[in-house]
Amino acid sequence: MAPETAMVELTFSPLPAHVRTARLIATAVARRGGVEETLLDEVRLAVGEACSRAVEAHRQQCPEEPVRVELRDGADRFEVVVTDRVPDDDPAGSGVPGTPVDLVELNGDLNLGFAVIAGLADDVDIASTPSGVEITMSWPVKKD
Amino acid sequence: MDLKVNDYTTDDDLTVINVEGEIDVYTAPKLREKLIDLVNKGKYHLLVDMEKVEFLDSTGLGVLVGGLKRVRAHDGSLELVCTQERILKIFRITGLTKVFGIFDSVDDAREHRKKQK
Question: Which positions fall inside the Histidine kinase/HSP90-like ATPase domain (chain A) (predicted)?
Answer without folding.
Answer: 12-139
